[in-house]
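EI: anyone free to look at a 595-residue chain?
SC: sure, send it
EI:
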Amino acid sequence: MVHLPIKVQISSLPNSPGVYQFYDASETIIYVGKAKNLKKRVSSYFTKKHEYGKTKVLVKKIKSIKHIVVATESDALLLENNFIKKYKPRYNVLLKDDKSYPWICIKNERFPRIFPTRKLIKDGSEYFGPYTSMKTVKTLLDLIKSVYPLRTCNYDLSKEKIEAGKYKRCLEFHLGNCKGPCEGLQGMEEYHRQIDDIRDIIKGNFKSSLLYFKHQMKTLAAEMQFEKAQRIKEKIEVLENYQVKSTVVNPKISNVDIFSIFSDETHAYVNFLQVSHGLIIRSHTLEIKKRLEETDEELLQLAVVELRQRFNSESKELYLPFPLEIESTLKITIPKLGDKKKLLDLSTRNAKFFRQERFKQIRITDPDRHAKRIMAQMKSDLRLSEEPIHIECFDNSNIQGSNPVAACVVFRDGKPAKKEYRHFNIKTVEGPDDFASMEEVVFRRYKRLLNEAQDLPQLIVIDGGKGQLSSALKSLDILGLRGKIAIIGIAKRLEEIYFPEDPIPLYLDKKSETLKIIQQLRNEAHRFGISFHRNKRSKAAINSELENIEGIGEKTAEQLLKSFKSVKRIREATIENLAKSIGMAKAKKVYKSFH
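SC: here you go
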């Protein structure tokens, strides 16, 4: 198919609000977007310099542009959301949620039944929901059942059939769960008054039910019908207990939707709370997979439209963390304090908690995605040019200058690669000089990797502050690796992150996953170095014990340890066994020194 040049296609776009669609060479829709000004927005893709790689790829693939003009920006937002759900373009955010949700149905009948369902049938019945879990639905229906006796049979209770005596009372009547409308023992007026109260309870309004039951209880008590009054009192207590458990803020806060967003480099999590009469009647968190450089404002705007559509919300007021251009008829509130701010904070906590739970699942079910997310986060936090898939960390270890050693630990995809760990005996440094020792081991490590043509890391972490970092940089300068490998230092006291030639350290959030990875690297390097240092000191102590024997030198001591594995076994060995290893003359000297 022949396509007009992109410039020609853009020139025909109007300066009006609308939705644009990008198509590739195969006429597949690859991106949908909305705009206040179609020509201006679409032009920006081809005139702006894009830093984000995926946006560059998207622009290269665009072969044709189509658009739909709408009256307002809010209309464009609705249309964009519908197109994304319908076509699922490759470069649009992915709104993850394909499951069907349960509803509460009040059936369109003379004596309506109430039951849960996942199917919506257009027969005049009323549907409330959808609910985010069947557990919520069952809890609500159990409450209704415990307070209101309703029929559960599927009989056709027409006036003619009831008057003809076609049906007989069932077990539910005798258990007190139904008042027998099938035999005309309960009238339609009373039954529908119950249905009206149930509608209010489902919406979160308990006021009319409580007022009715309290009036009924007082009437029965005045008529000395104390047993019936007691049963009504129990129903009042059930309703009040349920209401107390659900109430979180001022009951005056009603008919409000609350939205919050929490995002990382790859995903965003939008929580939706719906409040009616001070009760949270719905809570749901939507996971959004990012595709391009979408801002929190863009993602939240899309999520608000999607969630309100999905859950059929008719609330006229929204509580949001920041202003958004949404439907003009809606009232937008940005809470700063009080009960409204508590609700927004609760929503944010729900989003964060959902993210944590997803991470736990992902670590088990999708370790590759978990690693990619961590790498993307580290790249952003540490201002790196590429993701640090391969990281190496160095640590020196010496006690009062004795047996100085160093350790290098290697992490790949945020996890220890223990087979690649390396120990270093310090060769060129006299005494406890951490700076010179760091310079030596960094030089030796990367000199060898270069000589053997092995892959270099994307990030080097130095355990120490500006001094150790400067020493490591000297070696990178000599090897010509300065600027080719990112390098940072971490100081233990306040967990400061130092960058080359930057006197001001970076302080990461204490709960940051990037800081946790760096701390794990540092701790692992310290542990690995200390264990090597202890082994070396222990071996040195054993050798010195054997070398103190007159006539026994270093080589003989090493031969004995190689044969007997420990000083204890050497001490317990016979002269004949010692002689097999080092000869009779030396064996006699060793045996004599221990006995």
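EI: The mean pLDDT is 80.
SC: 👍
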